[in-house]
Amino acid sequence: MSEKQSKFHGLLFLFFFITGMILSVWVVLRNGWWLPELASDRETIDKIFVTIFIIAGILFILSELSLSFFVLKYSGDPNRRAFYLPGNTKKEILWSILPGTLVVIILEISAEFLGGASLWGRIYGEVPKDAFLVEITGEQFAWNVRYPGPDGKFGKTDPKLISTDNPLGIDISDEAAKDDIVFPAGQGILYLPLNRPVVFLIRSKDVIHSPYLPNFRVKQDAVPGMTTRTWFVPKKEGEFELACAELCGLGHYRMKLPVVVEPAEKVEEWLREQTPAADLYY
Ligand SMILES: [Cu+2]
Protein backbone atom coordinates (compact mmCIF):
# COMPACT_ATOMS: atom_id res chain seq x y z
CA MET A 1 0.00 0.00 0.00
CA SER A 2 1.39 3.41 -0.92
CA GLU A 3 1.79 6.16 1.66
CA LYS A 4 -1.00 8.11 0.01
CA GLN A 5 -3.41 5.18 0.13
CA SER A 6 -2.54 4.56 3.73
CA LYS A 7 -3.24 8.17 4.75
CA PHE A 8 -6.50 7.98 2.82
CA HIS A 9 -7.55 4.88 4.80
CA GLY A 10 -6.68 6.66 8.04
CA LEU A 11 -8.91 9.56 7.02
CA LEU A 12 -11.71 7.16 6.05
CA PHE A 13 -11.58 5.72 9.58
CA LEU A 14 -12.12 9.15 11.13
CA PHE A 15 -14.76 10.01 8.52
CA PHE A 16 -16.87 6.91 9.26
CA PHE A 17 -16.65 7.50 13.00
CA ILE A 18 -17.79 11.13 12.76
CA THR A 19 -20.52 10.33 10.19
CA GLY A 20 -21.72 7.46 12.37
CA MET A 21 -21.92 9.75 15.40
CA ILE A 22 -23.83 12.44 13.50
CA LEU A 23 -26.27 9.86 12.09
CA SER A 24 -26.86 8.36 15.56
CA VAL A 25 -27.56 11.76 17.11
CA TRP A 26 -29.90 12.58 14.21
CA VAL A 27 -31.85 9.31 14.61
CA VAL A 28 -32.15 9.93 18.37
CA LEU A 29 -33.36 13.52 17.92
CA ARG A 30 -35.85 12.39 15.29
CA ASN A 31 -37.29 9.26 16.90
CA GLY A 32 -36.44 9.57 20.57
CA TRP A 33 -34.44 6.86 22.28
CA TRP A 34 -35.86 6.52 25.75
CA LEU A 35 -38.27 3.95 27.18
CA PRO A 36 -41.97 4.87 27.43
CA GLU A 37 -42.85 7.26 30.26
CA LEU A 38 -42.28 5.71 33.71
CA ALA A 39 -45.51 4.30 35.20
CA SER A 40 -44.19 2.65 38.38
CA ASP A 41 -42.08 3.30 41.49
CA ARG A 42 -38.86 2.16 39.80
CA GLU A 43 -37.28 5.55 38.96
CA THR A 44 -33.96 4.13 40.23
CA ILE A 45 -33.69 2.03 37.06
CA ASP A 46 -33.86 5.18 34.92
CA LYS A 47 -31.20 6.97 36.97
CA ILE A 48 -28.76 4.05 36.70
CA PHE A 49 -29.49 3.60 33.00
CA VAL A 50 -28.79 7.27 32.18
CA THR A 51 -25.66 7.44 34.38
CA ILE A 52 -24.07 4.37 32.80
CA PHE A 53 -25.06 5.60 29.35
CA ILE A 54 -23.29 8.94 29.92
CA ILE A 55 -20.10 7.36 31.35
CA ALA A 56 -19.95 4.72 28.59
CA GLY A 57 -20.78 7.35 25.95
CA ILE A 58 -17.92 9.65 26.98
CA LEU A 59 -15.47 6.72 27.07
CA PHE A 60 -16.67 5.50 23.68
CA ILE A 61 -16.14 8.90 22.03
CA LEU A 62 -12.71 9.39 23.66
CA SER A 63 -11.44 5.94 22.70
CA GLU A 64 -12.77 6.10 19.13
CA LEU A 65 -11.26 9.56 18.64
CA SER A 66 -7.84 8.50 19.93
CA LEU A 67 -8.01 5.34 17.80
CA SER A 68 -8.72 7.48 14.71
CA PHE A 69 -5.91 9.85 15.69
CA PHE A 70 -3.33 7.06 15.96
CA VAL A 71 -4.49 5.36 12.76
CA LEU A 72 -4.01 8.68 10.98
CA LYS A 73 -0.73 9.68 12.65
CA TYR A 74 1.01 6.32 12.18
CA SER A 75 -0.36 5.42 8.78
CA GLY A 76 2.05 3.85 6.27
CA ASP A 77 5.63 5.03 5.92
CA PRO A 78 7.68 3.13 3.29
CA ASN A 79 10.88 3.78 5.29
CA ARG A 80 9.62 2.24 8.51
CA ARG A 81 9.69 -1.49 9.14
CA ALA A 82 7.10 -3.20 11.29
CA PHE A 83 8.58 -4.05 14.66
CA TYR A 84 7.97 -6.76 17.19
CA LEU A 85 6.66 -5.96 20.69
CA PRO A 86 7.75 -8.61 23.18
CA GLY A 87 5.17 -7.46 25.77
CA ASN A 88 5.28 -4.93 28.58
CA THR A 89 4.24 -6.14 32.01
CA LYS A 90 3.96 -2.65 33.51
CA LYS A 91 1.59 -1.46 30.78
CA GLU A 92 -0.41 -4.68 30.92
CA ILE A 93 -0.94 -4.28 34.66
CA LEU A 94 -1.90 -0.65 34.15
CA TRP A 95 -4.47 -1.34 31.44
CA SER A 96 -6.00 -4.10 33.55
CA ILE A 97 -6.20 -2.06 36.74
CA LEU A 98 -7.58 1.12 35.13
CA PRO A 99 -10.71 -0.39 33.51
CA GLY A 100 -11.15 -2.68 36.52
CA THR A 101 -11.20 0.30 38.87
CA LEU A 102 -13.62 2.11 36.57
CA VAL A 103 -16.02 -0.85 36.64
CA VAL A 104 -15.89 -0.88 40.46
CA ILE A 105 -16.55 2.89 40.54
CA ILE A 106 -19.57 2.52 38.22
CA LEU A 107 -20.82 -0.35 40.38
CA GLU A 108 -20.46 1.74 43.55
CA ILE A 109 -22.22 4.73 41.99
CA SER A 110 -25.14 2.56 40.77
CA ALA A 111 -25.48 0.46 43.90
CA GLU A 112 -24.87 3.03 46.64
CA PHE A 113 -25.44 6.56 45.35
CA LEU A 114 -28.26 5.86 42.89
CA GLY A 115 -30.04 3.32 45.09
CA GLY A 116 -29.49 0.19 42.99
CA ALA A 117 -28.61 -2.01 45.96
CA SER A 118 -31.63 -0.98 48.01
CA LEU A 119 -33.95 -1.44 44.99
CA TRP A 120 -32.53 -4.93 44.47
CA GLY A 121 -33.01 -5.70 48.18
CA ARG A 122 -36.59 -4.46 48.01
CA ILE A 123 -37.52 -6.42 44.86
CA TYR A 124 -36.00 -9.70 46.06
CA GLY A 125 -36.60 -9.22 49.77
CA GLU A 126 -39.89 -9.51 51.60
CA VAL A 127 -43.09 -8.64 49.77
CA PRO A 128 -45.53 -6.13 51.37
CA LYS A 129 -48.37 -7.80 53.28
CA ASP A 130 -51.21 -6.03 51.44
CA ALA A 131 -49.80 -6.86 48.00
CA PHE A 132 -51.96 -7.76 45.01
CA LEU A 133 -51.00 -11.20 43.66
CA VAL A 134 -51.05 -12.40 40.06
CA GLU A 135 -49.53 -15.54 38.61
CA ILE A 136 -48.23 -15.37 35.05
CA THR A 137 -47.40 -18.66 33.32
CA GLY A 138 -45.66 -18.58 29.97
CA GLU A 139 -46.07 -21.19 27.27
CA GLN A 140 -45.19 -21.20 23.58
CA PHE A 141 -46.59 -18.64 22.63
CA ALA A 142 -48.95 -16.95 25.07
CA TRP A 143 -49.44 -16.15 28.74
CA ASN A 144 -51.80 -17.86 31.21
CA VAL A 145 -52.99 -15.54 33.96
CA ARG A 146 -54.26 -16.60 37.39
CA TYR A 147 -55.64 -14.48 40.24
CA PRO A 148 -55.89 -16.08 43.72
CA GLY A 149 -59.54 -15.09 44.32
CA PRO A 150 -61.04 -13.79 47.62
CA ASP A 151 -58.89 -16.07 49.85
CA GLY A 152 -55.71 -14.46 48.49
CA LYS A 153 -54.11 -17.90 48.05
CA PHE A 154 -53.26 -19.82 44.91
CA GLY A 155 -54.47 -23.42 44.86
CA LYS A 156 -52.16 -26.36 44.18
CA THR A 157 -51.26 -27.28 40.63
CA ASP A 158 -49.99 -30.56 39.24
CA PRO A 159 -48.50 -31.05 35.76
CA LYS A 160 -50.34 -34.42 35.55
CA LEU A 161 -53.68 -32.57 35.67
CA ILE A 162 -52.86 -30.34 32.71
CA SER A 163 -55.36 -30.75 29.87
CA THR A 164 -56.96 -28.58 27.20
CA ASP A 165 -59.67 -27.64 29.70
CA ASN A 166 -57.29 -27.18 32.62
CA PRO A 167 -54.22 -25.52 31.09
CA LEU A 168 -52.49 -24.87 34.42
CA GLY A 169 -53.26 -28.27 35.95
CA ILE A 170 -55.26 -26.76 38.83
CA ASP A 171 -55.99 -29.33 41.55
CA ILE A 172 -59.63 -28.49 42.18
CA SER A 173 -59.77 -30.74 45.28
CA ASP A 174 -57.58 -28.15 47.02
CA GLU A 175 -59.76 -25.65 48.93
CA ALA A 176 -57.49 -22.74 47.97
CA ALA A 177 -57.91 -23.59 44.27
CA LYS A 178 -61.72 -23.34 44.17
CA ASP A 179 -61.88 -19.53 44.03
CA ASP A 180 -58.84 -19.05 41.78
CA ILE A 181 -59.57 -17.15 38.59
CA VAL A 182 -57.85 -18.63 35.56
CA PHE A 183 -57.41 -17.14 32.12
CA PRO A 184 -56.02 -19.68 29.66
CA ALA A 185 -53.24 -18.75 27.26
CA GLY A 186 -54.06 -15.73 25.14
CA GLN A 187 -57.43 -15.02 26.80
CA GLY A 188 -56.46 -13.03 29.86
CA ILE A 189 -55.42 -9.54 30.78
CA LEU A 190 -53.39 -8.20 33.66
CA TYR A 191 -55.78 -5.98 35.55
CA LEU A 192 -53.70 -4.17 38.18
CA PRO A 193 -54.61 -1.78 41.01
CA LEU A 194 -53.16 1.74 41.06
CA ASN A 195 -50.77 2.64 43.92
CA ARG A 196 -50.84 -0.84 45.44
CA PRO A 197 -47.86 -3.22 45.46
CA VAL A 198 -48.31 -5.83 42.72
CA VAL A 199 -46.53 -9.17 43.03
CA PHE A 200 -45.97 -11.32 39.96
CA LEU A 201 -45.42 -15.03 40.52
CA ILE A 202 -43.89 -16.18 37.27
CA ARG A 203 -43.80 -19.71 35.85
CA SER A 204 -43.30 -21.47 32.54
CA LYS A 205 -44.80 -24.62 31.03
CA ASP A 206 -42.06 -25.26 28.50
CA VAL A 207 -39.00 -23.09 27.79
CA ILE A 208 -37.60 -19.92 29.34
CA HIS A 209 -39.76 -16.85 28.73
CA SER A 210 -39.44 -13.40 30.25
CA PRO A 211 -42.33 -11.07 31.09
CA TYR A 212 -41.21 -7.54 30.26
CA LEU A 213 -43.23 -4.41 31.08
CA PRO A 214 -41.23 -1.46 29.73
CA ASN A 215 -43.58 1.17 31.20
CA PHE A 216 -43.00 -0.21 34.70
CA ARG A 217 -39.26 -1.00 34.20
CA VAL A 218 -40.02 -4.61 35.12
CA LYS A 219 -38.43 -7.70 33.58
CA GLN A 220 -38.14 -11.12 35.16
CA ASP A 221 -37.40 -14.50 33.55
CA ALA A 222 -39.97 -17.31 33.62
CA VAL A 223 -37.99 -20.49 34.24
CA PRO A 224 -39.53 -23.96 33.80
CA GLY A 225 -39.60 -25.92 37.06
CA MET A 226 -39.49 -22.93 39.38
CA THR A 227 -41.52 -19.89 40.39
CA THR A 228 -39.74 -16.58 40.06
CA ARG A 229 -41.08 -13.41 41.62
CA THR A 230 -40.93 -9.66 41.26
CA TRP A 231 -42.99 -6.77 42.58
CA PHE A 232 -43.57 -3.07 41.95
CA VAL A 233 -46.17 -0.35 42.48
CA PRO A 234 -48.14 0.88 39.43
CA LYS A 235 -48.23 4.69 39.60
CA LYS A 236 -50.19 5.55 36.46
CA GLU A 237 -53.61 4.55 35.21
CA GLY A 238 -53.91 3.38 31.63
CA GLU A 239 -53.40 0.60 29.13
CA PHE A 240 -49.98 -0.95 28.73
CA GLU A 241 -48.44 -4.10 27.34
CA LEU A 242 -46.40 -7.03 28.60
CA ALA A 243 -44.11 -8.62 26.03
CA CYS A 244 -41.88 -11.69 26.12
CA ALA A 245 -38.24 -10.58 26.31
CA GLU A 246 -36.64 -14.00 25.91
CA LEU A 247 -36.42 -15.41 22.38
CA CYS A 248 -38.49 -18.55 22.97
CA GLY A 249 -39.29 -19.87 19.51
CA LEU A 250 -40.97 -18.99 16.22
CA GLY A 251 -44.00 -17.28 17.80
CA HIS A 252 -41.97 -15.22 20.30
CA TYR A 253 -42.97 -11.95 18.63
CA ARG A 254 -46.68 -12.46 19.32
CA MET A 255 -46.25 -13.38 22.98
CA LYS A 256 -47.84 -10.34 24.58
CA LEU A 257 -50.43 -9.60 27.19
CA PRO A 258 -52.58 -6.48 27.65
CA VAL A 259 -52.08 -4.66 30.96
CA VAL A 260 -54.66 -2.30 32.47
CA VAL A 261 -54.08 -0.18 35.59
CA GLU A 262 -57.14 1.27 37.34
CA PRO A 263 -58.10 2.30 40.89
CA ALA A 264 -58.12 -0.67 43.30
CA GLU A 265 -61.94 -0.67 43.80
CA LYS A 266 -62.52 -1.10 40.06
CA VAL A 267 -60.07 -3.99 39.91
CA GLU A 268 -61.74 -5.71 42.90
CA GLU A 269 -65.14 -5.26 41.28
CA TRP A 270 -63.91 -6.73 38.00
CA LEU A 271 -62.41 -9.72 39.82
CA ARG A 272 -65.74 -10.42 41.57
CA GLU A 273 -67.41 -10.68 38.15
CA GLN A 274 -65.04 -13.41 36.91
CA THR A 275 -65.85 -17.13 37.02
CA PRO A 276 -63.95 -19.02 39.75
CA ALA A 277 -62.08 -22.24 38.94
CA ALA A 278 -64.62 -24.37 40.86
CA ASP A 279 -67.30 -23.48 38.29
CA LEU A 280 -64.97 -24.13 35.37
CA TYR A 281 -63.41 -27.45 36.30
CA TYR A 282 -66.29 -29.29 37.99
CU1 LIG B 1 -41.72 -16.30 25.29
From TrEMBL:
A single GO BP: ATP synthesis coupled electron transport
How does the record classify its membrane topology? Answer: Multi-pass membrane protein
Stated name of the protein: cytochrome-c oxidase
Q: Which Pfam families match?
A: COX2
Which keywords describe this protein according to UniProt?
Answer: Copper, Electron transport, Membrane, Metal-binding, Translocase, Transmembrane, Transmembrane helix, Transport
Per the record, the major location class is membrane
Organism annotation: Candidatus Kryptonium thompsonii
Q: Where located?
A: Membrane
Question: Where exactly are the transmembrane stretches of this chain?
Answer: 12-29, 49-72, 93-120
Q: Does the keyword Transmembrane helix apply?
A: yes
Q: Which residues form the signal peptide?
A: none
Which residue intervals define the domain Cytochrome oxidase subunit II copper A binding in the entry? 129-273
Family from the record = Belongs to the cytochrome c oxidase subunit 2 family.
Keyword Membrane among record annotations:
yes
CC terms in the record's Gene Ontology section: membrane
Task: Please give the InterPro entries that the UniProt record associates with this protein.
Answer: CcO_II (IPR045187), CcO_II-like_C (IPR002429), Copper_CuA (IPR001505), Cupredoxin (IPR008972), Cyt_c_oxidase_su2_TM_sf (IPR036257)
EC number in record: 7.1.1.9
GO MF terms, alphabetically ordered: copper ion binding; cytochrome-c oxidase activity
